[in-house]
Amino acid sequence: MIRYIKNVAGIILVFSMVLGSTRVAYTRPGLMMRVPSSSNQKAPYLFRTGFGTEIHNFDPLNAAKGVYFDMEFNKGFSFGFSAVQGGDPTSIGLLAQSQYVAPVEFGFHFAKRVFVYNDISLSVGLQDVVFQNEQTSNQVLSLNTSLLSFFTVLASEKDLGEYKMNTYMGFGTGGLAPMDTLGNTPIDTLETESESDGTNAGVFLGFVLKTPYFGKKGGMDIVGEFDGTGVNVGLRIPLTSDYRLNLGFTHIEKLPEWGSRYWVGHPGFTLGLDMAVPRDPKRKLLGGPSGPVDIYGPRGAMPQGNGLETVSLHGDSTVAMADFAVSTLRDSMSLMNNEMRNLMVRLSAMEQGSQFLSDSIKSIKLDANISEKNMNEAMRHLSRSLRYFYAGDYREALKEVDLSLELNPNLALAYARRGSIYYKLGDVQRATINWNLALRLDPEYTDVRNILKALHENNLKSASLLEE
Fold this sequence. Notes:
Serine Threonine Protein Phosphatase 5, Tetratricopeptide repeat, alpha+beta, single chain, rod-shaped, disordered N terminus, 2 domains
């Protein structure tokens, strides 16, 4: 691996760069303002497009501006296109009278992710394959080979709780070496004092810090980078989950000298807007169009295939299975609730049945108590009737028997006694009726049976008249 990196670095040092305007902030592919970026996961959007501008002077207005388009294909290969017009290099004092029209550049940008290991990725690429409309030539477009930019960038992605940090470092030539966005003039002609670095290759560093602010729209990003000649800082503010406003300053270390004159690395205020079209239109990009983590899919996906593609192929099926499991559990809970309601109804019915049985038992006990009380009262009347019978007061004895039968109409002894009283009163027919009633209530009543037999045989005088 170290040997491979040394070979790439050796190739980079071969190329040189002296002019160009393709470094307008936010118009190259990637997450940064001017430097390239890399990721260990595939971008979740079909393509990303937008515009950017660098304002070098407000009165009169002097700005470099451009539009761009980029997308990622399979196996870590990405492509970008930009159309940029540089600023006016005329000195500030003469800017209002300047008739200079900066050439328009059409740039093509290519990158390839060649290595992924956990949260580290390595990408190499070629940027600024630029075609210019030459003002001094009959040719409409011509290739500017001096702007070709070969680069390699090493990226690391870390989770810091609610924050997420992406860092980038690498080497670049051509349009990535020290240069400016003011016009299409060689650097040495813009330098009135010895301020040019004049290097053929540049080292760049950068970071993107994703914050939880505007979290529902993807989170706000803080961008910082050293592009080889100065420090650039910016903010990427989500307007929606798919649109993002880009603000910042280039060469912020020279900002105090704004408005005095132009030089290579002149500071500028940057403004841009980008839009991302998701691969799956049914889902929004959780990290917005350029988030340092979510822009390339969910965290923690393991490399697949040749180790370059890290987007999970089973994410959708896993979500579908989880949704099915949740639906099944919901249905099971509904069935359990219905069964619980049925059990509650059954329990209520059983409680009502139990209460009914309790009331019935109480009623039976009450009836038994009443019957027992009536029996005792009836027996007392029978006892009085027996005393009246012995005393020869048959009428009073008959009243007591009648009272006893009112209390207990099924008392065989009372009918037998009433039969005996009627016999003493000389009413044999009524006596016979009462004796038969007593025998019907108690078929084993032997004394009554003997009386009826004696009466049938006209021998009643020898039979007992139940006077006991």
